[in-house]
Amino acid sequence: MSAARAVTDATFEADVLKSEKTILVDFWAAWCGPCRAVGPILDQIAQEHSDKIEIVKLNVDENPQTAAKYQITSIPAMKVYQGGQVVKTVIGAKPKPALEADLAAYLA
Amino acid sequence: MRQIIIIGSGPAGYTAAIYAARANLKPLLIASSVEAGGELMNTTDVENFPGFPEGIQGPELMMQLQTQAERFGTELVLDDVTSVELTGDVKTVTLGSGATHKALSVIFATGSAYRKLGLPDEERLSGHGVSWCATCDGFFFKEKTIAVVGGGDSAMEEATFLTRFATKVYVIHRKDTLRASKIMQERAFSNEKIEFVWNSEVIGVDGADAVTGVRLRDTVTGAERALPVQGLFIAIGNDPRVHLVHGQLDLTPEGTIAVAGRTSKTAVPGVFAAGDVIDPTYRQAVTAAASGTVAALDAEHYLANLPKSLLADASERELTTIA
User: Fold this and answer.
1) CA–CA separation, B159 vs B189, rounded Å?
2) Chain A residue with minimal CA distance to B96?
3) What pLDDT was estimated at residue B168?
4) What per-residue confidence (pLDDT) applies to B46?
5) Which H, E and C letters describe chain A, residue by residue?
6) pLDDT at site B323
7) CA angle at residue A67 from A62 to A71, to 5 degrees?
């Protein structure tokens, strides 16, 4: 998991869907090893591109409503939201250069 | 420059690091960015690693191995190796970040990866009924119905092993003959708990939270059907992770890195290999750990016999880096 701010079923609309910023939601769970591995990488990306993107995390065990709504079937799942819409989905833990390449359009 | 770089952070890599660090070789261990700890990070109970009578969680075991390696001075880097240059006395290892590290010796402990079916639900249900390791997970399928996919020795072995736990084991194979050796075939044929499903390929895995069945397609008629099972063991092969060394190290017919006899020595001086990447047969955490020990001892011996000037160079530059 990342050190990012946590969002929940209750706060998802205000924190993510109504945000004016580009938001990446890291869907994770405590039992997911690859989630723990990719967390620090997301933290680095968030720090290096804080002017372009905000990264938050959502625990799928504790927030099944949002996880179901976005049909999360494999974690880590990283979804980029702009104006309340999903504009990009990345599934699975990847090395930093690969994640940066996947997210390039939202980091530059 | 380093005396030794270890690539890989499974039981082989960490054990090599423990030995190398205790020999005061100050190893640098490249652990991977998102796969640090290796395959055991995605398993739950490890009940066959000696010393843990109550079992231990895979990730917990790997954390302890990491702690033990670091305790004696192993430096850990969470990055991926993108290329290696192994010729000459000084080896170069390049990382995903672009950083390069030089060392007098390198141990490859890059492991192997289970081959996958490539089905969309396979990953999702991994750990929830989909498994690649009968000896690891079979115990948790007592009194269940299981399907094993594959037609080779490993599939026969897994199916036979799983009958210790399961009430019924289907072996699903795409053809009507097996690749497996005669003796393994006969062992499976004579086991009354095993039923062969010939000419069938798995085209889907069903289950919301856990496997409830598989969908099969007949490879001759094209007919599709569902087969209810609670477990799906995939035994269609393992691929040693050797992409870094293609063209630089010799491989065996099985695709593993070739080493001399029971040693870890590759044909290139100063380059050693340990664990699953040299082992087409056993692939257990404890055999990998033992193999890591062999590699560290081989490397230590190699370094001890290098010209003093090279070793001095290694420690001097290391001191410079630290300062």
Assistant:
1) 11
2) A97
3) 98
4) 78
5) CCCCEECCCCCHHHHHHCCCCEEEEEEECCCCHHHHHHHHHHHHHHHHCCCCEEEEEEECCCCHHHHHHCCCCCCCEEEEEECCEEEEEEECCCCHHHHHHHCHHHHC
6) 37
7) 155
Chain B residues with CB inside 8 Å of A34's CB? 34, 41-42
Contact by Cβ (8 Å): B47, B138: no
* A95 contacts in chain B (CB < 8 Å): 32-34, 79-80, 96
Which one of B35, B41, B96 has the shortest CB-CB distance to A96? Answer: B96
B105 within 8 A of B296, measured Cβ to Cβ: no
Please tell me whether the overall predicted TM-score, pTM, comes out greater than 0.80 for this model. no
Q: What is the mean pLDDT of each run of 10 residues along chain B (323 residues)?
A: 97 98 97 89 78 91 96 95 96 95 98 90 82 69 92 86 94 94 92 97 92 96 96 89 96 96 98 97 92 98 92 63 43
Write the CB contacts of B310 (distance below 8 Å, at least 6 apart in sequence).
B89, B104
Task: Please report the ipTM that was assigned to this predicted complex.
Answer: 0.74
Q: How far A38 CA sits from the closest chain B CA (Å)?
A: 6
